[in-house]
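User: Structure please.
Assistant: Input sequence and predicted structure:
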Amino acid sequence: MDKEKYIPVIRPDDRSFHWLDVREILYFGLEGRRVVYYTQDDVYHHIINLEELLDLLAPTGFEKLDRGVNVQMDKITYYDSVLGKVYFDDPLHKNSHYATVSAACMKKVEKLLPKSRDISLMDQPFPEE
């Protein structure tokens, strides 16, 4: 079974992101705290923190909404402007997945979704089961 495998990496000279085909790796090793991949033509660094990963995934719709929380914005179905949460289920239920949102980032969510999706304004956002 010959499946293609790719690793998200950074080219250190220009900080550009790439999907490195593992079949192109000649060798890899540690330099300081970072894994470094060597190919025939280039050197790549392994992504080591959330900021680097968010930079890579931002074009696919991810945005930072809270410290350590990065959300794929088109997956949000509801939000709570009082408690600072976004939800991903529709319909909502008491075990719905949610992520936290800082007060400063709540404006991004409010621009994305109509007020009718703000559960803080609903009488009973979580139906009885």
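The radius of gyration is 20 Å.
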